[in-house]
Amino acid sequence: MSETAKTQPGLVVELTNLNNKVMDLEIKLSYQDEALQAMEHTIAAQHQSIQGLERKLTLLAEYLKSLKEDPIKPLSEEVPPPHY
User: Fold this and answer.
1) CB-count exposure of residue 56 (10 Å: 0-12, 13-18, 19+)
2) In whole angstroms, what is the distance from residue 12 CA to residue 25 CA?
3) Which of 1, 21, 35, 56 would bridge 5 by S-S if both were Cys, CB 3.0 to 4.6 A apart?
4) Which DSSP state fits 2?
5) What's residue 52's pLDDT?
6) pLDDT of 61
7) What is the distance between the alpha carbons of residues 83 and 19, in angstroms, rounded to a whole number?
């Protein structure tokens, strides 16, 4: 122990309290880092899932539009068969 610490015991207590607070903050920070990494992983997986669903929805919308079209075109749009 230094001379200052011997003459000021309150200083030792205060330094110990500050050291404990810093350690507590470091522990909380490490837990928050782990939680943040887990959330980033979850968000990335959800983003991929959403992109896949958007692609499927686009394909489904195109398919439904194709079902609405009349398969028989007006005579003006019909191309004569090749044997004519």
Assistant:
1) exposed
2) 20
3) 1
4) -
5) 98
6) 94
7) 94
Instruction: List, for residues 2-59, the tens digit of each pLDDT value.
Output: 565 566 888 999 999 999 999 999 999 999 999 999 999 999 999 999 999 999 999 9
CB 29 within 8 A of CB 22: no
Q: Which helix (H) or strand (E) holds 17?
A: helix 9-68
Place of tokens 């980033």: 40
Contact present, 5 and 12 (Cβ < 8 Å): yes
Contact partners, residue 12, CB within 8 Å, separation at least 6? 1, 5
Query: Which amino acid makes up residue 47?
Result: H
